[in-house]
Design a protein that fits this description.
Bound molecules: iron/sulfur cluster
Radius of gyration: 22 Å
CATH architecture of the largest domain: 3-Layer(aba) Sandwich
Number of strands: 19
Strand order of the largest sheet: 3-16-15-19-17-18
CATH class of the largest domain: Alpha Beta
Helix content: 25-40%
CATH topology of the largest domain: Rossmann fold
Structural class: alpha/beta
Largest sheet: 6 strands, mixed
């Protein structure tokens, strides 16, 4: 059974309650970045094959025009600004050092944004046409995973899921982008969720939202009640504000009571999980054939002068976005793409905004590992905090003495790197990093075994 605290739902074991730090941006509406003079679009910013350019150097393109094809497993790219195509070149990338990228220099001669008129038949499209629109719009999971959405929908249908769980938890500290998206477009999110459910073959939608976002819960509930059709019921499920409430396994359990086994996907228990921002993008793609051109992200932390929720064209430089937010505050020492629990440290800001980036957190002061770490004192706090019941303490001590291949029984391959264990460790041990080292070694060993 799903665990409920009063009328609130949550997951079972583990989890932590970090300071949410959301107050600086939760009250700020989404603000548009002025069109940048250049955008840089890495050809690979999703899981799958890289996009293949279909425009030539010097060509003028309008905002919304397709500029690269997605191939068999990826998704296309579209021009987020009107301008002139620059040659494909290796450019700095937020998760890889450099990556082949298309760039567009802003140029008014290219003309205005393409028009995307409504398709009056949008509610009743055949399945294949709906999937094609999602694919052609270049939509990937906007919760951070960046898996092509059309493929995830196909997998879900093949796995015969019956339930769509929409993720509106946004449990990462500091981030409020999804919260503002839920307030700005509740009807579109609910409609988009129904469209996703139909494509996936699900017969019911549950939208999980943490209880610290009561106005989002109210807005979505009103939108669900106002749906013109009831063939796929949509229910909003208020959840306890607790990290990692938005992790797939934890959210599925919280809202439905179904337990996703370790190392398996939610489809193993008949569930597809999607993010609320993805539902909004799907709605735009199906109703208007509008491609994904912008990304909404939270720019916040003590290291930014004016924290904001920003809608920026994909490919905009993070430097331009930081400038729009008043610039870096004195003493900024760390830059994180995503939230502080599961985000990735950025070495530089002259990198482009990509589809999977939902936040930019700028921090001051010393990082968690700068003062080193101590030995395991066997306090057991990491065991209590792990939502999966793994043994990060055991993995860490084995990695320290070079016994990485002895870590599988302690859960190294099951870890999804939520960071709860590192967060609670009184010895400041980098338990997530130990897990990553162990996981990589175990996977390498398995690959070597299967190749021999
Ligand atoms: S929390 Fe840290 S010190 Fe305590 S058991 Fe886990 S690894 Fe050891
Ligand atoms: S990072 Fe891995 S080991 Fe640590 S709490 Fe999360 S799932 Fe458990």
């Amino acid at each position: 059974m799903t665990q409920a605290t009063g009328s609130l739902h949550t997951f079972g074991r583990g989890g932590v309650h970090p300071d949410p730090h959301k107050g600086a941006t939760s009250g700020r509406e989404i603000e548009d970045l002025p069109a940048p003079s250049e955008v840089v679009l890495p050809l690979l910013q999703h899981l799958g094959e890289p996009a293949e350019p279909c425009v030539k150097k010097g060509e003028l393109v309008r905002r919304g025009q397709k500029i690269a094809e997605g191939g068999k497993t990826g998704v296309p790219l579209h021009a987020p600004i009107s301008g002139k195509i620059k040659p494909v070149d290796k450019r700095p990338h937020p998760t890889m050092a450099v990556a082949p990228s298309l760039a567009i220099g802003g140029n008014a001669e290219a003309g205005p944004e393409l028009e995307f008129p409504e398709d009056p038949a949008w509610r009743d499209l055949p399945l294949e046409e709906s999937l094609e629109r999602v694919r052609e719009a270049g939509i990937v999971g906007l919760g951070g995973a960046a898996f092509p959405t059309w493929r995830k929908l196909q997998f879900a249908r093949a796995a015969k899921v019956d339930l769509l769980v929409m993720n509106g938890a946004e449990c990462e500290p500091y981030l409020t982008a999804d919260y503002r998206v839920m307030l700005a477009w509740p009807a579109e999110i609910v409609e988009g969720s129904v469209l996703i459910a139909k494509m996936a073959g699900a017969t019911r939608v549950l939208i999980g939202v943490e209880s610290d976002k009561p106005d989002a819960i109210t807005a979505l509930s009103k939108a669900a009640a106002a749906l013109p059709t009831r063939d796929i019921p949509v229910e909003i499920v208020p959840c306890v504000a607790r990290y990692p409430q938005g992790a797939e396994k934890q959210l599925v359990f919280a809202v439905s009571g179904r337990t996703v086994p370790n190392r398996q996907l939610p489809s193993a228990v008949g569930v597809l999980v999607q993010n609320v921002a993805t539902a909004h993008a799907v709605y735009e793609a199906i109703r208007f054939r509008r491609p994904l051109l912008d990304r909404i992200l939270t720019v916040t932390g003590p290291g930014i002068v004016t924290p904001r929720n920003v809608r920026a064209p994909l490919g905009a430089s993070l430097s331009d976005i930081v400038e729009f937010c008043g610039g870096l505050a004195p003493g900024t020492s760390r830059m994180i793409a995503g939230g502080p629990m599961m985000g990735r440290a950025l070495p530089r800001l002259d990198v482009p905004l990509i589809k999977g980036m939902n936040g930019l957190v700028l921090l001051t002061g010393r990082g968690p590992l700068e003062d080193g770490f101590g030995p395991c004192i066997r306090c057991g706090r990491c065991l209590d905090a792990c939502p999966l019941g793994l043994e990060p303490d055991q993995v860490s001590v084995r990695v320290e003495v070079g016994r990485t291949l002895d870590t599988e029984p302690h859960g190294a391959l099951d870890c999804y790197e939520c960071g709860c264990c590192s967060y609670v460790c009184p010895s400041s041990r980098p338990l997530v990093q130990f897990m990553q080292v162990a996981k990589a070694a175990l996977r390498r060993a398995a690959a070597t075994r299967s190749a021999s």
